[in-house]
Write a structure and sequence with these properties.
By secondary structure, this protein is mainly α. It has two domains: 49 residues, no CATH class; 125 residues, no CATH class. 63% of the residues lie in helices and 0% in strands. Helix 1 crosses helix 2 and helix 4 crosses helix 5. The longest helix has 29 residues. It is globular and about 55 Å long.
């Protein structure tokens, strides 16, 4: 999806004439190896073909969270604000003892909730620019075609940033959890915080 998106972006790397569309990549041409599709139509075909598996996996994942009740341990709620602050203090070494937590700490819940919301935003802005006439109400909701395109573009960079930070933190804090992310089984040891 990212490679084909970069191919599409390269065809017109501007987001209209509004000055508030910040784009540090506007004058930068992404290298050929990072793009998929070879030209605009090829990038569009790949992007549209890959969006359906992305949506299907997302719907299956959300369905699993609802059916299993797992959403309760992942959803960041108002009660998690104080715990998130305390957890941040712990990570910044401003607090010595590890705050109590359940299956996931409040910052993990915030990250998981944020990434699901970001995924929904990516899909909705994608549809807003994929079918701007048929889904005019959605395109209008995001501020028009160029604004929807702008928000769709930035969701990619936020995903990339999240992925990099997530993997770095896995290696820094709990390397055994990388295997758990891939296999679903955690075999490392972690301290009891209940």
């Amino acid at each position: 999806m990212i490679g084909s998106g970069l191919q599409i972006y390269g065809a017109y790397a501007r987001f209209g004439e509004r000055p508030f569309y910040l784009n540090p990549f506007e004058e930068y041409a992404f290298p050929r190896w990072s793009r998929l599709g070879g030209w605009l139509a090829g990038g569009l075909n790949w992007h549209f073909a890959l969006m359906w598996p992305l949506i299907a996996v997302g719907v299956l994942y959300l369905g699993y969270l609802v059916a299993s009740g797992e959403w309760r341990s992942l959803l960041f709620g108002p009660r998690d604000f104080r715990g998130a602050i305390e957890m941040q203090k712990y990570y910044l070494r401003l607090r010595k003892d590890h705050p109590p937590q359940g299956k996931h700490n409040p910052l993990q819940k915030l990250a998981y909730t944020f990434i699901v919301v970001l995924g929904v935003l990516a899909v909705l802005t994608g549809f807003a620019i994929y079918k701007p006439t048929q889904l005019a109400w959605l395109t209008t909701l995001f501020g028009g075609f160029q604004a929807a395109r702008y928000w769709h573009f930035w969701t990619v960079w936020i995903f990339v940033g999240f992925l990099i930070v997530h993997v770095v933190l896995v290696f820094a804090v709990d390397p055994a959890s990388l295997r758990a992310m891939i296999t679903g089984w955690y075999r490392g040891r972690f301290p009891s915080h209940d």
